[in-house]
Design a protein that fits this description.
Number of strands: 15
Largest sheet: 6 strands, mixed
Distance between the termini: 26 Å
Order of helices and strands: HEHEHHEEEHEEHEEEEHEEEE
CATH architecture of the largest domain: 3-Layer(aba) Sandwich
Number of helices: 7
Bound molecules: ribulose-5-phosphate
Shape: globular
């Protein structure tokens, strides 16, 4: 079974959680795309809000009814992928540069389901570089302040500006992404707090105490994990 088979199985299992009348948040990435496709195939009477322009295009193309988050208010269910799933369903997200809209949609949702292939499950967060969304104005100064914040957490590395085709990657919000290759995040809550306190940092990809359940595709089927 390939990683993509596992992502597909997890996405399809999560789509079965949706019910008619629900307001549903749609995640971003290759795993979330399997969820969106399986959800659309069910042809339920639901209203959806996307976490990125890419997901908005995918969902609308498949016939899902799309709304702005503020038009829906509290959501019943959000399903999204992750880059790492650690202890207590602590997560690293943002590999697809959608972390800010993802976190806004997750926080608006009564139930959040993370879906992934088996390789995403880790015993300690940090092998996957932590994405940090930063406003472009003064971003090199912000990078220096992020380094100071990382040192407070005993992480002595400099985050790197995410580039594509010779230019900084721009998020859907017009911001930059810095990736912090922490290696090992011993205290995710401490790191989350100090990063949020840096002026110029809009948000980071640590999703703590947000996931209610994980559905992970494995060689022996979809395994459900609760915090
Ligand atoms: C996008 C994300 C994605 O959910 C995360 O990168 C996982 O992606 P994939 O399902 O393609 O492995 O956080 O910002």
């Amino acid at each position: 079974m390939t990683a993509d088979d596992q992502k597909r199985a997890a996405g399809e299992a999560a789509a079965a959680l949706a019910e008619a009348g629900m307001k549903v948040g749609l995640g971003t990435g290759s795993t979330a795309a399997w969820f969106v496709k399986a959800l659309a195939a069910r042809e339920l009477d639901i209203r959806c809000t996307p976490t990125s322009r890419a997901t908005a295009d995918l969902g609308a193309g498949l016939g899902l009814r799309m709304f702005e988050l503020d038009d829906l208010g509290e959501l019943d269910l959000t399903v999204d992928g992750a880059d790492e799933i650690g202890p207590g369903l602590s997560l690293i997200k943002g590999g697809g540069a959608a972390l800010l809209r993802e976190k806004l949609v997750w926080e608006a949702s009564r139930r959040c389901v993370v879906i992934a292939d088996a390789a995403k499950k880790v015993s300690t967060l940090g092998a996957f570089p932590l994405p940090i969304e930063v406003i472009p104005f003064g971003h090199r100064s912000t990078q220096a302040r992020i380094c100071d914040a990382l040192v407070e957490c005993d992480i002595g590395i400099a985050p790197r500006l995410r580039m594509k085709d010779g230019a900084p990657v721009l998020t859907d919000n017009g911001n930059y992404i810095y990736d912090a290759a922490c290696g090992r995040i011993a205290e995710p809550a401490l790191l989350a707090g100090v990063l949020k306190s840096v002026t110029g940092v809009v948000d980071h990809g640590l999703f703590l105490d947000l996931a209610d359940i994980a559905m992970i595709g494995t060689a022996s089927g979809v395994v459900t994990i609760e915090p």
